[in-house]
Design a protein that fits this description.
The complex is a heterodimer of chains A (about 300) and B (about 150).
Chain A (H helix, E strand, L loop, with lengths): L1 H8 L14 E3 L4 H10 L4 E4 L5 H6 L7 E4 L9 E4 L2 E5 L4 H6 L1 H6 L2 H6 L5 H6 L2 H7 L5 H8 L3 E6 L2 E6 H4 E3 L2 E2 L6 E8 L5 E9 L7 E11 L5 E9 L6 E2 L1 H4 L9 H12 L12 H29 L1
Parallel strand pairs in A: 1-3, 2-3
Antiparallel strand pairs in A: 4-5, 5-10, 6-7, 6-10, 8-9, 11-12, 12-13, 13-14
Chain B lengths: L3 E7 L2 E7 L5 H8 L18 E4 L2 E4 L12 E3 L12 H8 L9 H14 L5 H7 L11 H7 L1
Parallel strand pairs in B: 1-5
Antiparallel strand pairs in B: 1-2, 3-4, 3-5
Classes of the chains: A alpha+beta (about 300), B alpha+beta (about 150).
Bound molecules: flavin-adenine dinucleotide (FAD) and FE2/S2 (inorganic) cluster (FES) (2 copies).
Chain lengths: ~300, ~150
Amino acid sequence: MEKTLSRLSGMGGVAQSMKPAPFLYKRPKSVEELLELLDTHAGAATILAGGQSLVPMMNERLLRPEALIDINTLSDLDYISQDGGRVRIGALTRHYELETSGELLRSCPIIPYAARHIGNRAIRSRGTVGGSLAHADPDTELPVVALLLDAKLHLQSAEGTRVARAGEFFLGPHKTVLKPNEVLTALDLDALSQEEGWAFREFARAGAYGWAVVIVAVVLRLDSSARVTRLRIALGGVGPTPVVAEEAVEPLLGSKPGAKWEEAVIYEVASRLRPTDDIHASSRYKLDLVRSLLPEALTEARNRCQSNEGER
Amino acid sequence: MSSADVKLQINGQAYTVNTEPRKLLSDVIREECGLTGTHVGCEHGVCGACTVLLDGRPARSCLVFAIQCEGMPITTIEAMAQDGKLTTLQQALHEEHGLQCGFCTPGILITLDSYLAENPHPSEDEIREALSGNLCRCTGYRNIIRAER
Ligand SMILES: Cc1cc2nc3c(=O)[nH]c(=O)nc-3n(C[C@H](O)[C@H](O)[C@H](O)COP(=O)(O)OP(=O)(O)OC[C@H]3O[C@@H](n4cnc5c(N)ncnc54)[C@H](O)[C@@H]3O)c2cc1C
Ligand code: FES
Ligand code: FES
């Protein structure tokens, strides 16, 4: 082991090792015990959920947490519940559970649909919604959907619980408002209504590194005379956090959606975005992706409204 | 951090290994339990060679610590062929030249076997999607996909 390490560390640069450094392992039996541990180890402890983002970074020794607090056995955090139009999802709910939840398929079908785009089945067996939000990668599915649906995130510490809206939660790539002694325990969302249509589109590269380049998600509501009364568009891959195009769509409400209207939406949204170049795509290419994904998404959301209409 | 006893259940058999919390399940399976059918490639979740069943679902054994798997049934490739007789899927992969060096094969078999249990009649696109998390550097995938058909 030591020999392998010293040989690899001679390589310099990216991967110096593929085994994690030693850590103190804690497995709390209750949320109370978890909060206590977070308090006593504040700053030195890292929460281990699905491990699908954390463990690769530990294997590469990009991270060396002093203590790991494993929340995988806290089944109290693994649930999906619904109370009228309000849906609550526990932070430890796995991606595959989002994908297959009958409750979500009825109340918020965009979540199972989006979850299906995450990595592959083996990743979705373990990865959790709380981990995806706390990891705050701006190019990933669940942060975009949480922002689209204006999710309210419950952040708990020994001092109590506070609620942050998705729009305030993300501060930058892998940066959130979570404090070192806090855990994300659940998120609340409003169920989509019969009058609302949704669409989710992403452009991802094929293969094992199938991460999204750009993500576009839409919720659209039509009134009885087919005028748009709500339009919410969230995007990923176009900035340091997922973004919601609020200002951009304000003047476009109250109209009947047609080709001209669609063009205006695309113009208003795209002209406010300033994506940066990265190794996956140039800024221009990302904007081109937005301009081609958004019309598809708008049409699909509108069609969903109209087919709901037919069912009523 | 000191070692401790970790009790695992692999392919229906109990193992007690004395190991550190930082030891990955993939390494324990291979080094402590001697089950070397589970392969290790990238160790960051990308290649799929280390895929096993955890609680009946496919998972990367390089992204979970062995100590986390106490009380969770684990299935590795060694559980697949019974009494030296290949399963239909293994036989098909063999006949269609779905492997060359065989490095990726255990992960591919575990992944596909669990997928086919849920979706017994997938389309070619669905097979491609199901295999999108498994890298093979030899076959170019064509023969693997033909074998599943
Ligand atoms: C090959 C591969 C492909 C992938 N593809 C995608 C993809 O296409 N899209 C995608 O979205 N993801 C992808 N992922 C990542 C995967 O979705 C992860 O599951 C997710 O990013 C993190 O969730 P986790 O539960 O595994 O969190 P962990 O890895 O356990 O934790 C991630 C971070 O969040 C913190 N954390 C976790 N839970 C909480 C909590 N409840 N409260 C506070 N902090 C917490 C941890 O301390 C850590 O800092 C991929 C991963 C791999 C290995
Ligand atoms: S070794 Fe685990 S996915 Fe590559
Ligand atoms: S057969 Fe060699 S990697 Fe797939």
